[in-house]
Hints:
Serine Threonine Protein Phosphatase 5, Tetratricopeptide repeat, two-stranded antiparallel ribbon, transferase, TPR-like_helical_dom_sf
Amino acid sequence: MPSISLCMIVKNEEEVLANCLESVKDICDEIIIVDTGSTDNTKEVARKFTDKIYDFTWIDDFSAARNYSFSLATKEYILWLDADDVILPEERKKFKKLKKTLNPKVDAVSMIYVTATDANGNPTFYYRRNRLVKRSKGFKWIGAVHEYLAVSGNILEADISIHHLKKNKKPDPDSIGRNLRIYENRIKNGEEFSPRDLFYYANELKDHKQYKKAIIYYQEFLDGKKGWVEDNIRACIYMADCYSYLGDKDNELLSLFKTFAYDEPRAEACCRIGDIFQGRKNFKIAAFWYELAVKMKNKKTGGFNHASYTTWYPHLALCVSYWQLGNVEESIKHHEITKQYIPNDPKVIYNEKFFQNYLKNKNKGK
């Protein structure tokens, strides 16, 4: 059974760090904490789990800090987590099984990263990240911000989820605007951005409501034609978001159509297009796009996944569209499918009562 070093970088994480370490302490053989300048009780929390706590002077470079943490590992494999990540009990069982059965020829293991859930704990937004890597391969982190772990070789896709939780965490004042500031300082210093930098800089601009500027950088990223296909698609969708915030529905629609230039239609883009036509009360065209979303729901990608668009959302929208088109049978059919996914949602409960009353009144009239 391979040994595992957990390597983390932290700063002002006293509210969440214990939950993270408690969830992984019986999986890892070594816990390494690299602190980048905490002013709270983060180190005191960490000491309850490990004595391997190190300081790293922050230089506006996440990869530098993460690579330093990796350099301190002594075990066969390295696992990395953020302080507000947890491995839930069922996932912990899967992880322990993986540890017992892991083929030593595996160089890296990717796991599902769940960053948002619904009221019932079901994932609503998730994607894959390389989480467990063989130390002897010397894999490095790349990128000052929105860094990624560059891996190669024999990569295993594990059915293990890591959840990102921020419920009890107060925002760190130093982190507000930090990523955008790092990017803009790099621009001032004359640094040339990689395609990935352009994409994530545009994301930061969007998140800071600088929509017009974000659109410029998304377009520059796409014009370079060197981006990963999933990032190209996501850039188009995020451009659509920007145009939506600016009230420009025509360009929002065109941005969503641009996603089709890179791969098969994604359910999310189809639903978003359907929403625009439904908003224009063109329910026939809206239904076409929602039906296409249903057909594409099983399309597997390595990119970001909004689970609603591949589960209940298109069916709820079809329920509305077909009702407006006078196709009651199809409307009820899609309501029933929606109910299988989110039975306790207020919209579903409302529609259930609506259809019950409709059918009751219809039967009375016979």
